[in-house]
């Protein structure tokens, strides 16, 4: 069963076909943003079918049909200005304070490099990666979503986020004591067992 088709445009800078449709087009018309383009533009259209087999269903893309279009007239930049300066590769502002080096892409999207938690463009210190919060009483430190380096508190056994907390059971290794538990100073102490 036909689900529609996807449209691809050839990127002359990367030598790759880039899909221009986010979901299958079911009609007979498609409009593409060609801002910043001029001359010959190559397109490929691929039909998308739903294949049904005894073992299940899957989506199957056909081989592509190709066409070339000539883009003429005044060349519009990425902001729709005839002959404007907002062309792919030039600076722009994506409106995101968490990015730098914003520039127009070949698809006329204003995109910047994300800053990591240390303020380095495309750096490795991203949320979820390891860091050092400088606190000797924590471990497994990681950057959180707000770029704060946070570690898990060490329990009385030195395990980050562990369960050996003051008031919980432990074993002081002394057979003459019972009801051993961790104190607030993380000492494992039991109560003496009487002879009765």
Tell me what the structure shows.
This protein has 196 residues and is an all-beta fold. Among the domains are: 2-71; 76-114, no CATH class. Helix content is 0%, strand content 38%. The protein has no helices and eleven strands. It has strands spanning 2-11, 16-19, 39-53, 56-61, 65-71, 99-104, 110-114, 138-143, 149-153, 177-182, 188-192. Strands 1, 2, 3, 4 and 5 form a five-stranded antiparallel sheet that branches. A two-stranded antiparallel sheet has the order 6-7. A two-stranded antiparallel sheet has the order 8-9. It is elongated. The N and C termini lie far apart (85 Å). The mean pLDDT is 90.
Essential attributes:
elongated, 196 residues, 5-stranded antiparallel β-sheet, two-stranded antiparallel sheet, mainly beta
Q: What is the β-strand count? A: 11
Order of helices and strands: EEEEEEEEEEE
Major β-sheet annotation: 5 strands, antiparallel
Work out the helix count.
0
From the N-terminal CA to the C-terminal CA, the straight-line distance is 85 Å
* Anisotropy-based shape: elongated
Low-confidence stretches: none
**By helix and strand content, what is the structural category?**
mainly beta
Instruction: Report Rg.
Output: 31 Å
Instruction: Provide the β-strand percentage band.
Output: 35-45%
Mean pLDDT: 90
Residue share in helix: under 10%
SSE blueprint and pairings:
Elements: E1 2-11, E2 16-19, E3 39-53, E4 56-61, E5 65-71, E6 99-104, E7 110-114, E8 138-143, E9 149-153, E10 177-182, E11 188-192
Antiparallel strand pairs: 1-2, 1-3, 3-4, 3-5, 6-7, 8-9, 10-11
């Amino acid at each position: 069963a036909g689900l529609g088709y996807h449209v691809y445009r050839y990127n002359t800078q990367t030598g790759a076909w880039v899909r221009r449709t986010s979901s299958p087009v079911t009609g007979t018309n498609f409009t593409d943003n060609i801002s910043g383009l001029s001359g010959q533009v190559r397109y490929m259209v691929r039909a998308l079918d739903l294949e049904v087999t005894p073992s299940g269903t899957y989506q199957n893309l056909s081989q592509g049909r190709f066409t070339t279009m000539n883009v003429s007239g005044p060349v519009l930049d990425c902001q729709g200005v005839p002959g404007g300066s907002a062309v792919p590769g030039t600076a722009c502002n994506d409106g995101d304070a968490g990015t730098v080096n914003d520039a127009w892409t070949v698809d006329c999207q204003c995109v910047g490099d994300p800053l990591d938690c240390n303020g380095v463009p495309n750096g490795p210190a991203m949320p979820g990666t390891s860091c050092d919060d400088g606190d000797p009483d924590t471990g497994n430190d990681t950057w959180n979503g707000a770029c704060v380096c946070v570690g898990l508190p060490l329990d009385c056994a030195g395990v980050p986020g562990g369960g050996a907390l003051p008031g919980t059971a432990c074993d002081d290794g002394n057979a003459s004591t019972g009801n051993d538990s961790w104190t607030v100073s993380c000492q494992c102490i039991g109560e003496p067992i009487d002879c009765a």
